[in-house]
Design a protein that fits this description.
By secondary structure, this protein is mostly helical. The chain has one domain. It contains three helices and no strands. The termini are close together.
Length: about 70
């Protein structure tokens, strides 16, 4: 398995944060990002955008993580 660098870890953490937030929304109708940063405030939109971008990057990161 290829060792992950710092950027890869940041991407993975952002995807995990996004997944946990969606889990909270689905199970409890509670949006943690909106409750911390405000409902669709500029900062919450930045967080949502970074999580989405991290998910796109993860598409290319997953093949790097498989065994060589």
């Amino acid at each position: 398995m290829k060792k992950l660098n710092g950027f890869d870890w940041i991407v993975a953490v952002l995807v995990i944060i996004g997944g946990l937030n969606w889990g909270l929304v689905g199970l409890f109708q509670f949006d943690l990002v909106a409750s911390i940063f405000g409902d669709m405030s500029a900062l919450s939109r930045v967080v949502y955008s970074l999580v989405g971008l991290a998910a796109l990057i993860m598409i290319f990161l997953v093949p790097k993580m498989k065994k060589e």
